[in-house]
What we know:
The longest helix has 27 residues, at 51-77. The protein is built from 13 helices and no strands. By secondary structure, it is mainly α.
Amino acid sequence: HPTYGRIAVWFDHVEWTGGVFWDMIQPAFMFMVGVAMPFALARRAELGATRRQTFEHVASRALKLLLLSQFLTIVADQRIRFQLINVLSQIAFTYFLTYLIIQMKFRWQAVSAVLLLAFHSALFMIFPGPDGAFSRTGNIGAVIDEALLGYNYEGSYVTINFISSTVTTLFGAWTGTLLRTQKPRADKLRILAIAALAAFVGGQALSLVIPNVKRLWTASWTLYSTGWVLLMMLAFIVLIDVWGYRKPVFPLVVVGMNSIFIYSLGFLLRGPVNHWLQPFTGGFKFIGDLAPVAQSCAVLLVLWYLCYW
């Protein structure tokens, strides 16, 4: 569409380098998993859980996420095929690895983050594809997937993304740890703003050597996307905690309390709900070009209400 088409492109992934709004959803999802971890782990400790019990809980949850990921993709694709690239599978890995890393002193956590990004980048550089280190086809991630799974994912995604995306979840855990401290709020906001700026600058500088590619979750993408997610976090803290706008964000609270649930509903019920609404909405064809947007919003409202219920 000559007008709305410019906005519509924000709601699909870019072809290869760079990113738009839609590309920031998975980094935000993985980041908020990390943010929640210090709060959840502290609560379990308060209730008397031992380190062994907490480890077993984390390992069990990671396994459940992995199994749920398989179920959802099998239903969506209508075929049984093992995969490890769905966001829930990736979170299963990053959640577990982040838990192990945050048991260390902070300086070793930081070293771990650098080593993970360096190792991920080195794999692509040491074993380049036909078009170079970060070739869209035939890169080391694709070679590993072909050997491990017997196929390559659509969209040029690779399983070893979890190595670098663990740092995204780790950034979230550091943010959650910061928010739990007794530091003045102004200091917390200043640290988040500086971190966002540093992530942007670091990501852009690194992109001169390592392309900014979400589909491979390159080191530059890890930093660049974290900059955007930190800005979103900063905006929500200012909006809710500083300015006190709690009621306007209530719909987001409902989704946040049911994030895995609504993600699963998107796989399982989005199509059926759209079909059920058609007789009542007529697809909103009477409003013209924006009819698909209105229909999608109606579907979203139903899914949101299921979360509220």
